[in-house]
Amino acid sequence: MTWIPKLLLNAAALIIASYLIPGVDVDNFYSAVIVAIVLAILNAFVKPLLIIVTIPITILTLGLFLFCINAILILIADKLIDGFAVNGLLWALLLSFVMLVLNSIFGISDKSNRPKNK
Question: Which of 33, 52, 62, 79 would you call most buried, defined as having the most Cβ atoms within 10 angstroms of its Cβ?
């Protein structure tokens, strides 16, 4: 899957998550696409740095701290985008988990770009 369908599916997942989670508000689909783009940029550049800095905590929590890192990135996106609002860290954690589940349902993963063996 190329990056444009992934962004659109992430935006759709964000809209669905905003209906499921009362502490998350997305104004419209355009805002959701912008949030998906900003989260993709943050995941590409900021997340690796946060993972390196928090390796000991991540190891002690058996990787569960990565949800906190995702929540922090969601809160950063909340501060950067006007049409997107998250009411706190707990709602951002829940949004991170719901986005993970919805992306799994939609079949969005980094491994989907690998060629399949025939």
Answer: 33
